Structure formats: structure tokens, C-alpha cells
Amino acid sequence: MRVGSDPASEVYVRNKAKKARELGLEGTELIHPETMSEAELLAEVERLNRDDDVDGILVQLPLPKQIDPMKVIDAIDPAKDVDGFHPINVGMLHLGRPSLAPCTPAGVIRLIESTGQPIEGKHAVVIGRSDIVGKPVAALLLQRHATVTICHSRTRDLAAIAREADVLVAAIGKARFVTADMIKPSAIVIDVGINRLIVDGAGKLAGDVDFNAASEVAGWITPVPGGVGPMTIAMLMKNTVTAAERRRA
Fold this sequence. Notes:
The chain is α/β, with parallel strands linked by helices. The protein has helices at residues 7-22, 38-50, 69-75, 87-95, 103-113, 134-143, 158-162, 211-214, 228-247, and strands at residues 2-3, 31-32, 123-127, 147-151, 167-170, 188-191, 195-199, 202-206, 220-221.
């Protein structure tokens, strides 16, 4: 479900709907005007909560300024919360219990696992402490027995800490913030950042990692675009199937 016409949101929702169709999942892309009130959106969420034919509900963020996103997230039935943002799902995640995990963090873990390197015993450094990526990534890494350090804007000597990482997850929202000299040789580097730069008058996407230089040092590294983004959509599809199976168990 999308409210308004934010260009990035239009692309995200379109890509998610396309992938769902490719996989044979039935879905409806609900598009509401920018002027929609908070009460109207909450009523729409409640309608979907009550609809037994609906297994997953996703409200694309950001929302217009008149709508409190936390109220909307809290209103979604946790069993249908395929984004994994509801407080109940967040709490279950941090307790290590089965839950619908946030899609991007779950995708990060899947990418790390795809290297064939064990997470257990590794020193993982997460740059960024957001509720959507940084904190849940750290929780998922802890569940897999990594030693986890979370860095943020007030971390002292962040570069030195990053250089100690066997696994480095960059989710700080600053274009090319992580440079090659911040990366341990042969480390696994997962770049969650999506930053829009203007280069020669044209828009270009860049990650939080200086990819060209970092790829000379890292053992494994994800590109932007084409790395975490597609995996996030894949995990959304997985959550949708999981939600359907649990509701029908």
C-alpha cells in the first residue's frame, strides 16, 4: 500500500509487485492520494487486518507528514506484518524467537551466508543503529554467535573498529563513507546504503562503501545497486509465504 507519489516509493512498490506476480503470489497495489488522513489510513489497515484472504500487509514508507508512521505500523496485525516492523515482531526477533524478521536485515544475513563462511565466532561490525537495519542486523548476527560491535555517528575511532571486522555491514546513509583503508583484508562487506548522487548533471546511486577501492581489499562485497536491494525483495516474498503458512497451520 502506498500513500502519495514519492518517486522512490513508486519504484520500490512497483518492483515488489512485479516480483510477487513472477512468483505467482496474488496481490493488490493500493495507491492512495497524498491528502489521505491518518484516520483513513488506519481504517484501511484495519479493513485488511479483518480480511481473511489477505496474508500480508505492507505500508510503504515514508508517509505524508500528516500521518504518524508508528501508529500505522502498530495497527498492522503482527501475523500479517511482512515488513517485520511491528513491536511484537521486533521483540520476538530480539528474544531469538520465531518471527517475521525485517526484510533488509534478513537479506543481509542471507548474503553473508552465501559466501560459505561461518558467521559463528566472527567479529561483525555494524555501522548504523537504525531500528530498521542496524539494530535488527545486530540481533540476527548475535543469534548466529557472532561477536557484534555497533558503530554510529558518535563512535570514537570508528575507522579503527571497522578495520577489525571479519564482517562489515554499512548502513549509515552516507555515500562512500566506508573507504578501503577501513576494511580488513578478505573481510565480508555488505553495503546497505542507497544514496542518490548527481554526477555530470545526472542522478546516480551510490552505496555507503567506496565500492571500486573497497573491492580491492574485501574478500566479498555487495554492489549498489544490485546487492541488498533485490535480496530485500526476496525476503519480503519469503515473509509473505511464511505468514500465509502460519495463518493456515
